[in-house]
Design brief:
mainly beta; 6 strands; single chain; globular
Length: 99
C-alpha cells in the first residue's frame, strides 16, 4: 500500500522516526540517496528498507519541489519464481514525481 502526505517535519526528523521504528521491527536500511529532478538537486531524499521479500521506500520532497506532498511511502513485494524470474508488485508513489 502506498501513500503521499504533507508534513512539517524536516527530512532529518522523518529519517530518525522511520529508522527507529523500522529497525526495531527487523527492517534493514538498504539504501539512502539524493533525488534529482530535471538535473537539479532540490533536497529530495529517498530511504529504502528491506525485510525478506518486502521493500519500503520513503521519499521526502522539499517544499521547493511543489508536488503537493512532502512524504511518500511505497511498499513493494518481490518474489523469485521458479526458473529465477522476479515478480515485483508495487503500489504507491511512482518515483519522486507529483501526483
Amino acid at each position: 500500500m502506498g501513500r503521499k502526505f504533507r508534513s512539517d517535519a524536516s527530512y532529518g526528523d522523518l529519517r530518525s522516526f522511520y529508522l527507529e521504528q523500522l529497525l526495531k521491527e527487523g527492517w534493514e536500511l538498504n539504501k539512502e540517496r539524493d533525488l534529482i529532478e530535471w538535473g537539479q538537486k532540490l533536497g529530495g531524499k529517498e530511504l529504502e528498507f528491506r525485510k525478506g521479500e518486502y521493500d519500503i521506500t520513503i521519499e521526502y520532497a522539499p517544499k521547493e519541489a511543489n508536488y503537493g506532498w512532502d512524504c511518500g511511502i511505497d511498499v513493494t513485494w518481490r518474489k523469485t519464481l521458479a526458473g529465477g524470474s522476479l515478480l515485483v508488485n508495487s503500489v504507491g508513489p511512482s518515483s519522486h514525481h507529483g501526483q
